[in-house]
């Protein structure tokens, strides 16, 4: 029976959730504060952590960071309100398994929990390496996608180090896998590691291995990922998060092609191509002294930029169809298409969380759609309330109507830009919140 630690400050909601999870045969420990969550984690091991983003004494991200440092294989699921999706994306970067938006849909929660627990058993901690088979992917037909594909084909057969840059959730891991598949190393392992999810000694030992007794808890020799990727490709995701010490060791591994396991005096030769990815601006990190310049140049022998979903034009609906098919299979549904309203909303929405956000929204919508069409009701509330079709521009010399149409459009655009944070929108629009609410009502933007 999987043991879940639930950290949620809303007493009623945590009670409901606890009851629901227990009914589903989970063992549940509930705490309401960050501090108590941390204490619970130190007292005994859990199989999964379900944590609210906003807690009275801190934010869920702090608990996540702590977890990733002390128990990197513990899957963490973050619960956020829809307005906090930007934060959820940050949580994923820090190593959260997934996020779900509130109000929590029980079926969706169950699905995510099961996926997380399955993933945990298939990549047990200290397993020899997280070598996973490549899932199927789509390339896209937009100009940006085609250009990216050409660049991948160009660099793949060489042994150059590649630095993949792009916003969170744009599919950087897919690009790394494709590069490996088109390379001469395709028959050797592709090993991926999320550097954002590991730190200190753990990062050192994960990458370079350790010998028995190297540190407290090192009960036997462990092969590092460099050795596990021997002959193949090592994909270092979120490279910007590596400590300065590990950056130095990494540089040595790249330059001298040897690694030295923690606690060992022996250097092991390695033949590994490194592909790194980041959604930080590494050049700024170099300027700020947070990232070694020599390592940056060594990793950036070739650079690939993965476009944001909002810049991929027609690809959006290719991905929608792909994710619908995937969700139909997983959830035993038979969704075939989107309603006109949903299509319009999808086209206007900025998709700041990129493919990951799209996949989550589609999966949730498929789950909530009993028939063949996804209707607006299956989208998160804010998405369909704030995306009414844009009103047609008035014709003729009606200055007042024209001004109002422009004002409505500007408000809508600003709200989208700040992810519906009304205080921020009001500040940007240089009006107070009350006036903003008044205008939202006037222009029927409150649903
Ligand atoms: N070409 C593709 N075809 C189908 N699904 C894709 C494709 N690219 C990415 N995805 C899906 O989109 C999600 C996000 O992709 P991925 O994890 O590669 O993004 P990322 O840019 O590495 O994210 P992060 O910056 O958080 O590490 C994953 O669920 C992945 O399966």
UniProtKB/TrEMBL annotation:
GO biological process: phosphorelay signal transduction system; regulation of DNA-templated transcription
Annotated GO MF terms: ATP binding; sequence-specific DNA binding
The UniProt record lists the keyword NAD: no
Domain Response regulatory: 3-117
Classification via InterPro entries: AAA+_ATPase, AAA_lid_NorR, CheY-like_superfamily, Homeodomain-like_sf, HTH_Fis, P-loop_NTPase, Sig_transdc_resp-reg_receiver, Sigma_54_int
Ranges of residues in domain Sigma-54 factor interaction: 138-367
Coiled coil (residue ranges): none
Pfam family, one: Sigma54_activat
Modified residues (4-aspartylphosphate): 52
Gene3D superfamilies: 1.10.8.60, 3.40.50.2300, Homeodomain-like (1.10.10.60), P-loop containing nucleotide triphosphate hydrolases (3.40.50.300)
Keywords recorded for this protein, A-Z: ATP-binding, Nucleotide-binding, Phosphoprotein, Transcription, Transcription regulation
This protein's name: Two-component system response regulator HydG
Organism in which the protein naturally occurs: Rufibacter quisquiliarum
